[in-house]
Specification:
Elements: H1 8-15, E1 23-24, E2 36-38, H2 41-47, H3 51-70, E3 80-88, E4 108-116, E5 118-122, E6 125-129, E7 137-141, H4 146-149, E8 166-167, E9 171-175, E10 178-181, E11 184-187, E12 195-197, H5 200-220, H6 225-244, H7 247-250, E13 254-256, H8 263-266, E14 267-269, E15 276-281, E16 298-301, H9 317-327, H10 330-336
Parallel strand pairs: 2-3
Antiparallel strand pairs: 1-5, 3-4, 4-7, 5-6, 7-16, 8-15, 9-10, 10-11, 11-16, 12-15, 13-14, 13-15
């Protein structure tokens, strides 16, 4: 990573005998670092992006960056220095039905960091820093990959299966006028959802796929015959359960309770307070008629820590992140989106 980051924890651990107390300079004017953008060759190849595509996408990110720098909370940094850097995302097609990167708009974004200004004494001399560790916040454009939307949270019964389906994150209210889902907020002018429900049959067939994978492994490694038979019986039971469902129930949205012995207890139809919906990214969300660089959805990620527990008293990090979100020009954001 090319961003300058002097890790404060390392400084203190190595120089502890000669470093004095940290003094945060909450009234000291900070600075903005120059804009940087990087598209790694392998990410460019994944999207099949031309030089013109990359230039157009960076132009869109620069426009977003300008909005961030104009926000009253960070326009003239006090007590912290600010930095942004843009990037092209790495796209992973982890499921067979996922579109290829060349079929999607360019995805990427920019990271924002507010680094507190502080001083400490080292060997009798005053040292000033505006680096250190900080809580970053990411503004993610056109990227609805499962890993960002919550894809690391899946039913345990799907372990080891390549799928873009996941447990829908719970709604966490509103931040800066936009809906929050766990660790991110969603900003778009469209009514089209960024995820779609997983059907009951699809949910159960992912369980079958996981059991089949285990069975193959056991056979290849000469595992216990009793365990292989148990899995075979489980697969047969799942097939029987699917066959017993009415066609409309097989196609109905599924949710997971994560408990119970019967499949009708662990995976249920519809939505209930104690049953989390199963969803996958809506790859048809994007308007393919627009230029690949056009911003169609913006996720602001890595915010959960800044809205949990007691607010930080440090001038940078979460303190600035929250103030930035609240002071962004909402109308300018909506005008920027397509």
């Amino acid at each position: 990573m090319w961003v300058r980051r002097t890790v404060l924890a390392s400084i203190l651990s190595v120089l502890a005998p000669s470093v004095g107390a940290i003094d945060y300079l909450v009234n000291e004017p900070g600075r903005w670092s120059a804009w940087k953008f990087r598209a790694q060759p392998f990410t460019t190849k994944l999207y099949g992006a031309s030089a013109n595509d990359l230039n157009a996408f960076e132009t869109q990110l620069r426009a977003l960056d300008a909005m961030i720098r104009r926000a009253p909370a960070v326009a003239k940094p006090i007590g912290f220095s600010a930095q942004t850097w843009g990037y092209l995302s790495a796209y992973e097609a982890i499921a067979p039905a996922q579109p290829k990167g060349v079929e999607l708009p360019l995805g990427g974004g920019l990271s924002f960091g507010a680094f507190s200004i502080f001083e400490y004494q080292r060997n009798g001399k005053t040292v000033r820093e505006d680096g250190g560790e900080t809580q970053l916040m990411n503004f993610v454009v056109n990227d609805i990959q499962p890993a960002l939307l919550g894809g690391r949270q899946r039913p345990s019964e799907w372990e080891g299966v390549d799928t873009d389906a996941f447990l829908q994150p719970a709604s966490s209210g509103v931040v800066a006028g936009f809906p929050r889902y766990g660790n991110y907020i969603v900003i778009t002018k469209r009514q089209t959802p960024i995820w779609l429900p997983v059907s009951m049959e699809s949910a159960l067939r992912l369980v079958i796929a996981a059991e089949q994978k285990r069975m193959v492994y056991l056979r290849e490694t000469r595992g216990p015959a009793a365990e292989i038979q148990r899995i075979e019986g489980k697969i047969a039971g799942l097939e029987s359960h699917i066959a017993s469902l009415r066609p409309e129930d097989r196609a109905a949205p599924a949710c997971s309770t994560g408990r119970g012995e019967a499949w009708g207890q662990r995976f249920q139809i519809g939505v209930a307070a104690d049953c989390r919906p199963l969803v996958r990214p809506n790859w048809a969300f994007f308007d393919r008629q627009l230029p690949r660089s056009a911003p169609q959805v913006l996720l602001v990620t890595d915010i959960a820590r800044c809205y949990a527990g007691k607010p930080s008293t440090d001038p940078g990090g979460c303190t600035t992140n929250r103030q930035l979100l609240e002071s962004l020009d909402r109308q300018a954001l909506m005008d920027w989106l397509h």
